[in-house]
Amino acid sequence: EVHLVESGGGMVQPGGSLRLSCVASGFTFSSAEMRWVRQAPGKGPGPEWVSSVHPDGTAFYANSVKGRFTISRDNAKNTLHLQMNNLKPEDTALYYCASPYNRGQGTQVTVSS
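Above: the chain's sequence. Below: its structure in token form.
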């Protein structure tokens, strides 16, 4: 069974940083493209794509986070990360780790002064 468990969310002030992590199991993590998506309150209907990373480490970012967020993966530990710097109030959302098969339960990020 595929499992994705996110952690690292929290509340920070504008300009702050957080590092999200996602531990994966139940599939061949090293061969999978992995993504971070987010769902902000009142926005939708679906989650917003934030970033993707290919198995070889090639990364892609939404324009809204480019230059501030960094996605990375540790294939030896089946773990995906998202380093978020210079956070803005509009980054407030529930952040999900997503595999080709499913997504996790999410971790809340709140940016507020």
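The first strand starts at residue 3 and ends at 7.
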